[in-house]
């Protein structure tokens, strides 16, 4: 039996898999309110720009190369997500960093949050290139 073309079922399957958890996932606090709303706006714009660059730059590359890139960007996305989440639940709750670490975290935390959007946009764009090319 031949499976249907992935172009027809991939997005529908992915959205139906994620739909029960969409509300819970979208309400996760990943960064302090101190950085909002400017950082969220910048991350959203950066995500769109990254998706455009990925689609334009890697459109002609083979599916195999894009699959490897998708694996890398998925891993980087998960690392950034975990980093933001661990910082959110630990800083100021049970870990109170000294002055030097606090200054360092003021750079690292927003950077991780920004990269989270970049990596997510790259993953989505690579999925489009792999399944719709």
UniProtKB/TrEMBL annotation:
- What's the protein called, per UniProt? Uncharacterized protein
Q: Does the keyword Transmembrane apply?
A: yes
Keywords tagged on the record: Membrane, Transmembrane, Transmembrane helix
Organism in which the protein naturally occurs? Sedimentitalea todarodis
Question: Where does the source fall among the domains of life?
Answer: Bacteria
Q: TM segments?
A: 40-58, 70-95, 107-132
